[in-house]
Amino acid sequence: MAFITANELKKKGVSLLEDKVGKNEETIVTVRGKNKYVIIGMEKYNQYREYELNAAIMETREDIKKGNFIIESVDDHIKRLKKNL
To answer: 2-5 and 34-40: which strand pairing?
Structure first.
C-alpha cells in the first residue's frame, strides 16, 4: 500500500496516480496528515462493486425467506415513502 499527500497529488496529478496505483493495489491520500481517500484501479473497483452487489442479493434473499417485505402498488409505496420522510 502506498501513501501520497494531497499536495503531491496537486503538484503531480495523474502521473503520480499512474505511478503509485500502478505499483500498488491501493493508494491512500492523506490530507493534513490524516488518511482521507483510497485510490484503486478500475479492475479492483469493479471487483469491490461485484462483492457489494452479491452481498445485496444475499441480504434480499434472506429478507424474502424471513417474509420481510411488503407487496403494494406503486402509489401506496410512494405514499409510504413520503410518510416516512
So the answer is: unpaired
Q: Residue 58, CB half-sphere, CA atoms under 13 Å: how many?
A: 6
Enter the C-alpha cell of residue 64.
424474502
Average pLDDT of the chain is 91
3-state secondary structure of 36: strand
| Cβ contact 59:29 at 8 Å | no
- Condensed to tens digits (0 to 9), the pLDDT of residues 3-39 reads 888 898 888 888 888 887 777 778 899 999 999 999 9
State how far the Cα of 19 lies from the Cα of 76, in Å rounded to an integer. Answer: 53
- Residue 6: name the closest of 27, 28, 31 by CA: 31
What's the rounded Cα separation, in Å, for the pair 19 and 57?
Answer: 36
3-state DSSP call for residue 67? coil
